[in-house]
Amino acid sequence: MPESESPQVRRDRHSALGAAGIVCLALPTLAVLVADLPPETRGANVLWFVGTAIGSALLPFVYWSPYRALGFVPLVALAWLAAVGHGAYWAEWHGWAHGIPLGFVVGALARGRRGEDPWAETAALFGAVLVGAVLVAAVVSRGRPYDVPPWFALFAAVVLVGWSWARLFRPVFELVLEPVLWVMYKVRRAGPGFTDFPRTGPCLVIANHGCWIDPFFLVKVLPRPITAMMNGTFYDLPIVHRLVVAFGTIRVPDKVLKKDAPEIQEAIAALDRGECVVIFPEGYLRRSEDRALRRFGQGVWQILKARPDTPVFAAWIEGVWGSYTSHAKGPPTKNKKPDFRRPIGVGMSAAVVVPPEVLEDHLVARTHLMNLVSAARTHLKLDPLPSFDLPAKADEPADEPV
After folding, report:
1. Which CATH architecture has domain 7-167?
2. I want to staple 57 with a disulfide (CB 3.0 to 4.6 A). Which of 39, 86, 107, 363 is the partner?
């Protein structure tokens, strides 16, 4: 296992391999159960099982997000549990009822594999399933029933459900959230930053901040889990707190001066773990129509000063001003109708490494990063904002976030 893997990637790896092991354990059990079927239906059931398993294994590869494809595993595991429960109670073991969910699980695990070089383990995963399929064919061809209770298959299905929901909760949560987001927003992405966005390794995404749920739009378009920052007011809400802690979200205390803020050190530590850190450097939610971008705080400079080789992806989120959770026409959720299929665009530039000479001065660095975010507007066919220049003096107005 590569030493550079983050705990997040390692957890995904172990979760996928654990679920694959449970599936492979279940296949010989299914072979035994199929062997008990009448000879006239046995062959057709095997063909249905193999055919549907192969077909459904390809379906997760159609889904655009490799990481979020892992979220199909817990959902499909429930379907397989229902099929096994039906078979155990009614003594009916239809090949397609097991081939579809098991094939989908295998395909989702292979699609969602992450790591420096996931293909070796992906091949091993399919190899293990092939061995299980050979066992199915061997047992069926001999036609010898074995006295193995079908409840063992039910036990394997229950274990798969419990394991996958416990270990893959984040991708399944994001997957289930997608239809809700689809109803409210029509999100599109554009720009070279999405073409070669790294599936592993440290990176920093910076963007403008126009509404409460900007992080959800980035989660929707990025192909990997993110480590975001959240204001303490929302972070500490009872239900929200449980979720954001599970997702590794960094808490930002409610205070104005953040030059020695602990969240900066947490973000640096997250980069060291190889995570994708998302930050809205304004440190402030947009309040007015005529000011689309405020001066960036020092936090983003401190992060890059500590880790200057970090690739930076500058993004612009368009269409959020005027949405239900923006400050247009009043506080968020006030004086506005809930959003329905509201167009949202996310433009992202290719990764850049900020030059060392730029990072020497925090004002120069912050201005440079503001212009990068402004330039990301062009990927949405928008004009960049007027160029941001250094302030006339080093002191900044007291109302500016730092």
Report:
1. Up-down Bundle (1.20)
2. 107
